[in-house]
Amino acid sequence: MLEALAAYYPQIKDVHVGAVTASGVLFLARGIGVQAGARWAMLKPVRITSYVIDTILLIAAGLLTAILQQYPFVDGWLTAKVLWLLVYIGLGTFALKRGRTPRTRRTCFVAALAVYAFIVSIAIAHDPRGVLSWWGA
Ligand code: HEM
After folding, report:
1. Cβ(2)–Cβ(67) under 8 Å?
2. Cα(17) to centroid of ligand 1, in Å?
3. Is the CB of 64 under 6 A from ligand 1?
4. How many CB atoms sit inside 10 A of residue 111's CB?
C-alpha cells in the first residue's frame, strides 16, 4: 500500500505545496478583508473553502510523512512544523475573528504571516531552525 503510494510522492508533494499556497493566499486575502471591514472575508462559503484547503493540506502532509517514514515528534523539522502550525492557527483565529480590537487583529495578522513564512523555510531547509539555519544559527 505505502509502496504503491510512494510512486506518487512528487504528485502528493505538489498537492501539499499547492494547498499550502492556496491556504496562504486565502488567509492573506481574508486578513486584508477583515482589516478593511469587508464582510465577505468571514462568510460561510469562504470559511468552508478554507477548511477544505487546510484538510487537503494536512492529508497530503500525513501521506508524505508516511512515505518518507519521518514523523512529527520523531524528526525535529516535522515537530517544529506541527508546533509552529499550532501557533499559526492560534494567531490566525485572533487575526480574523477573536481579536477584540483592530490593533490586536492587525498585530496577530502580521505575526501569523511571519510564522507562515517561517514554516515554509522549515519545510525547505528540513531543519527546525528554518531560515535561521541558512546563516548557520
Ligand atoms: C504539520 C503539518 C505538516 C506536515 C506533517 C508537513 C510535512 C511535509 C513533508 C513530509 C514534506 C516533504 C518534504 C520533502 O519531500 O522534501 C513537506 C513539504 C513542504 N511543506 Fe509541509 N507539512 C506540514 C505543514 C505545512 C505547512 C503549514 C506549510 C506552510 C505554511 C508547509 C509547507 C511546505 C512546503 C513549502 C514544502 C515543500 C518543501 C520543498 O519543496 O523543499 N507544510 N511538508
Report:
1. yes
2. 7
3. yes
4. 17
- CA–CA separation, 49 and 59 (whole Å): 15
Ligand 1 center from residue 18 Cα (angstroms): 11
51 grid coordinates: 477548511
Helix or strand (DSSP H, E) at 96: none
Q: Is the CB of 120 under 6 A from ligand 1?
A: yes
Residue 7 DSSP label? T
Alpha carbon 9 to its chain's center:
20
Q: How far, in Å, from the CA of 125 to the mean position of ligand 1?
A: 10
Ligand 1: does its nearest atom lie under 6 Å from the Cβ of 82?
yes
100 CB burial (10 A radius; 0-12, 13-18, 19+) = exposed
pLDDT digits (tens, 9 = 90+) for 12-42: 999 999 999 999 999 999 999 999 999 999 9
pLDDT in tens, 104-134: 999 999 999 999 999 999 999 999 999 999 8
Q: What are phi and psi of 7, to 5 degrees?
A: -60, -25
Q: Is the pLDDT of residue 137 over 70?
A: no
